[in-house]
Amino acid sequence: MELRDYLRIVRAHWLAIVILTLLGVAVAWGWTALQPKVYTANASGIVTATNAGSDTGASLVGDQLARSKVTSYVELGSWRAVAECAIDELGLSTTPESLVTRVDVSNPLDTVIVRVTASASSPEEARDLAESWLGCMVQQINTVEGTDESGTAAVTLVTGDSARLPTAPSSPNVRLALALGALVGLALGIGYAVVRHVLDRRLRDPRDIERETGVPVVGTLPVDKGLSVERGLADFESQHSSSAPLAEAMRELRTNLQFMDVDNPPRAIVVTSPLPGDGKSTMAANLAVSLAAAGRHVVLLDADLRRPMVSTVFGLPDGAGVTDVLAGRAELNEVVHNVGTSRNLAVITAGRIPPNPSEVLGSNRMQALVQSLTEHALVIIDSPPLLPVTDAAVLTTAADGALIVVGAGKTTYDMLHKALANLGKANARVLGVVLNRVPRKNGGYYGYQYQGDYAAADTR
Length: 460
Hints:
The chain is an alpha/beta fold. It has helices spanning 3-12, 14-34, 56-76, 80-90, 96-100, 123-145, 174-199, 206-213, 244-258, 280-293, 310-314, 322-327, 332-335, 357-361, 364-374, 391-396, 413-425, 453-458, and strands at 39-49, 103-106, 113-120, 155-159, 217-222, 268-272, 298-302, 336-339, 345-348, 378-382, 401-407, 430-438. The chain is 46% helix and 16% strand. Strand 2 and strand 3 form a beta hairpin.
């Protein structure tokens, strides 16, 4: 995937990423609230030779001797005897083994300094423990190196900087914990978004559809909650209506169809979908109206003999239609409904529902009807879905190709692949895919705003 694909994933799942990031921060804050507060105090001393003298040579010898002893004195700081001494001085009720774990003795690099770091549950206890521990180390060194009296050891530890009272706990580190919690939450959120994108097989983006199927996406139609089967026609006259984005998208689809094959443009187009509810009937009706508005003579033929919807979209009476013409019960001019003031659009409803729709649509009479209509107009044929029945695949063989309408966020790639396979078995031509009900963003359609200067200029 490219960088823009990852950005699209993040944009699509930004809410989950933000929630998981905040959840990580909340968990980190809760963890720090449950942890006991620990205060840390430092005390330090210097290892020196007691009889180093004041001349340079003696000082150098004393410094070398101190450096040779400082590592041993750091190790002495973890002795049980030092812990017992500190317990006696402070009157603590703990064991030497437990107390040793609360004290760290170290030697800064290239120095003869011994630093004692003590941790406790209160600032005062941490300060007293650091100072007592350093004093007990001095006593232990005098015992080991000398005669239990101060200054009797050739090299000893001299108390230097006294421990300061800590003003804030050293643990837990709230800022660090919150930062780590935010990073972990952010990582989980991004991981969730990527996994969700990989596992989500629903159609959402035209580029992904073309890359997955190899079939071009010839149109993307925005969702319009104001449209329904009973009021499924967009307003192609006004740029200020609520259906203006859909009308503009239909014009783009109309243009794409006109330039699909300049030398041999399609004259009969079957409109179908993988499953019911993808909006194929509404799309077919609006495409026919859009083509008629551009001055084309168009015939909209309702060949969905399972669940006809064209008559409902245009508010036409349920009467004689395609099946009546094919059965010889009516003439073609008797079932044609001229729609609109331009008289460019003729609508032929389904008529009486037969018991064998597939045989009727695949008959020679149906092919002859379509051929006769294409001599005078562009024919848009609304057909049943591809997956439940074979009607659309059979009917497409009599037309110049099929447009497959899929629902954004509803139709899956598996459904689309199976629908394409059904058309392929019938050697039918696929003109393209129309991605329907694409969510609008920020009041526009794919970032295009139908307002402001453009709308104002259109009214002049």
